Amino acid sequence: MLQKLLTGQLDLDSLLTDLIKEFIQKLLKAELIEFLNYEKYDPKSKNSGNSRNGYYTRNLKTKYGNI
């Protein structure tokens, strides 16, 4: 990614957008693990009353565009 930025194949705004997107996705996954109190595919999730029921995409408007 840094090489693309330095060679001009990627602009700074695109780089920042990608980094923000990755950070938010990791943050939301960590929040879900903390809330449910188990990792994905953990056997203790069976019959726990809480489960992962899928996901859907969301859009976040930033000064770098939609993420």
Automatic annotation (TrEMBL):
Compositionally biased intervals (Polar residues): 46-56
Region described as Disordered: 44-67
One Gene Ontology biological process: DNA transposition
Keywords: DNA recombination, DNA-binding, Transposition
Pfam family, one: Transposase_mut
GO MF term (any one): transposase activity
Function: Required for the transposition of the insertion element.
Family (UniProt): Belongs to the transposase mutator family.
Name of this protein: Transposase
Organism (species): Anoxybacter fermentans
Organism ancestry: Bacteria, Bacillati, Bacillota, Clostridia, Halanaerobiales
